[in-house]
Write a structure and sequence with these properties.
The chain is α/β, with parallel strands linked by helices and 368 residues long. It folds into 2 domains: 2-165 and 349-367, 3-Layer(aba) Sandwich (Rossmann fold); 174-347, 3-Layer(aba) Sandwich (Rossmann fold). Helices cover 42% and strands 20% of the residues. It contains 14 helices and 16 strands. α3 (93-99) packs parallel to α4 (118-134). The chain is globular. The relative contact order is 0.12.
């Protein structure tokens, strides 16, 4: 089967959707499908290449508006391709426009609502509704997002829940782990991810300031929030020596950080956090997770009292209480972490996700 994937970006651009798109595309290609990914290049020069068995067509970027890259060539390329099936990754309104020129059966992965760009969301609402009406199947990562999204309210009979999946983490380098333990003796709360407003990382800093002990390790590049602002906040709260803002780290360092952490924290504050796949990484590393209840998929990945704790968003005292509980009870923290690892290996493995995606594709093919 020739599958055309459409989204705005692709690695090496970092992000949860970008990472999922790469894993999905390369996984499907390894299973014998022909996979083409159509996206927008970071600059004004397009490119056409093959990488890890996947055909990548990057169209030139004209400009970026509200985090959406504009590329007229994307529309032309979408019309030019003749795939057996199109798999579109929402949200990307320019992609909705490009779909108007295509006729192949359509699958939409609905990653999240459009939350912050309300004007853009209102202007593009007719396009988005057209895409959702046309889709033979709509995929969401969790039942919670399917039930809570107003955009999906009229399409639930065509929604299929396919949780995101990741490959197992390689073992960390023992020497690097030992070095990290010397630098960060703990107890350590770890955050990993791009520093975006909806991640709520400043709430983690404020929670650490409410505790008499414990460190926050923050690993991730700047985006809509700057690491330097978090450092200033920590210093102002008197916990500068207990908050460590590392910036972006390589994979070897990341694996070592998972090994020395006592708990993983995803303190997100807005529905833009629709799943939080980084929680799966933490679970695979055996860590208990503290996440926030957003009415999306965060509390589907982390089950309160079973694999970690779920706390209200934008509530540093509640986050501090959960951290204090795990810092003071390492045996319970390990038990929650092991339960999370078992669930991640059973429910959130990459191979299981690929099986489920192929089943969606087969369902559409059987209707034809």
């Amino acid at each position: 089967m020739h599958i055309l994937q459409i989204y705005k970006d692709y690695p090496p651009v970092h992000g949860g959707i970008e990472g999922h798109l790469q894993l999905l595309s390369e996984g499907l290609a390894a299973r014998g499908h022909r996979v083409t990914v159509l996206y927008v290049a970071p600059g004004s020069q397009g490119r056409h290449e093959w990488r890890n068995g996947v055909e990548l067509i990057a169209t030139p970027r004209l400009l970026t508006l509200a985090r959406a890259p504009l590329s007229p060539a994307l529309l032309w390329q979408a019309a030019r391709c003749r795939p057996d099936l199109i798999h579109f990754h929402h949200p990307y309104p320019v992609g909705d426009l490009a779909l108007l020129a295509t006729r192949a059966p359509l699958v939409v992965t609905y990653h999240s609502d459009i939350v912050r760009q309300r004007v853009l969301g209102a202007l593009t609402a007719p396009l988005i509704h057209h895409t959702l009406r046309r889709a033979a199947c709509i995929i969401t990562g969790s039942p919670a997002l399917m039930q809570s999204s107003l955009w999906l309210a009229h399409h639930r009979e065509r929604v299929r829940v396919v949780p995101f999946g990741l490959p197992p983490l390689p073992l960390p380098d023992p020497a690097l782990v030992a070095d990290m333990r010397r630098r960060f003796p703990g107890p350590n709360a770890l955050f990993v991810g791009r520093l975006r407003y909806y991640k709520g990382v400043d709430r983690l800093v404020r929670a650490i300031a409410l505790l008499p002990r414990g460190h926050a390790i923050i690993a991730g590049g700047d985006a809509t929030v700057r690491g330097s602002d978090l450092v200033r906040l920590a210093n102002a709260l008197g916990v500068g020596e207990r908050v460590h803002v590392l910036g972006a780290v390589d994979n070897a360092t990341l694996r070592a950080l998972y090994a020395i952490a006592d708990v993983f924290v995803l303190p997100s504050v807005a529905r833009s956090e629709a799943f939080g796949a980084v929680q799966i990484e933490a679970q695979m590393a055996g860590l208990p997770v503290i996440c926030t209840e957003l009415g999306t998929g965060t509390s589907y990945v982390t089950i309160h009292g079973r694999t970690g704790f779920v706390v209200p968003p934008d509530d540093p005292p509640a986050l501090a209480r959960a951290l204090a509980e795990l810092f003071a009870n390492p045996a319970r923290a390990r038990a929650l972490g092991m339960a999370g690892r078992e669930r991640a290996m059973a429910e959130f493995r990459l191979e299981r996700m690929l099986d489920r995606i192929e089943a969606v594709y087969a369902e559409i093919g059987n209707r034809a």
